[in-house]
């Protein structure tokens, strides 16, 4: 891979930003699936996983890096897609609940398949966009991020991600750093519980440092609960018990999608323990990187995850890609890798040799990896 420079004038061109609006193509596909019924209800997952896996092969790698010091006022066309997505997803989700619960041509399995696809949208696009928004500085963007997370009942992800994951990534205190040889089916139930508790503890600790109790009104968990209750109530009002069940189904699928991505982003990667609970700073080589062009369009450069952890406040158009000697590279984009993660023997065959090579490259002096493999090193201070 030969990295090239992208100028500010190129970034200002709306046509260059247009591929990052690919998420909008999922909306008409979902409505067409609802209207047609039958096997068409599986169109969204087929499009998100199958089509983008093929497009990655055809489009190749994105080898351009924008100047990270680019004036952020040049990024308006990129930022716009993240700002409009919350109302787009809201109308799509609740419009489909209204339509599907009154559509005589949709049977039980078709409703399940259709809202499985809605969950793929909520996890692949909605949570991903909320992730971008929660890292921004304006109240509007953070509120839009909270609204997106409430539509999939995973509001605590904001607290866990900002207060725990970024601080403790690749250490034993980070729940979503998947351990070496830990299959996804063991990782998933562990992370669901540990992320919720770690998010709560982080917010309670922040309040305690201010001399406030956990039940203080500034605890964002009150806002999280209110938003999620509002979404559940609206689903029930629009679609009754069936609407509520379909809402819960899509939320569960979205959460599963998120944690699949969390699983592959840091699998087996650890920061050096310096002794006495101290760990080295986060570097690009502590996250897996993927330069596949098409899936980075759909996921607004989420696959440039190495740079995101290195510079968390960098907006997605300015995220950098890295050569293999600077950051470990996934063998394929997220659509392929998340599918592989569902089959632990296949995943280990693909990824364990890469983890071992990563250790030899970055930490040739470490001979005993047992504590790193089991996350039994001392907790970071």
TrEMBL record:
The protein, known as: AlkB2_2 protein
Membrane-spanning ranges: 20-42, 77-100, 106-128, 221-249
Keyword set includes Ion transport: no
Annotated compartments: Cell inner membrane
InterPro entries listed in its UniProt record: AlkB/XylM (IPR033885), FA_desaturase_dom (IPR005804)
Entry superkingdom: Bacteria
Presence of keyword ATP-binding: no
Domain Fatty acid desaturase per the UniProt entry, residue ranges: 111-338
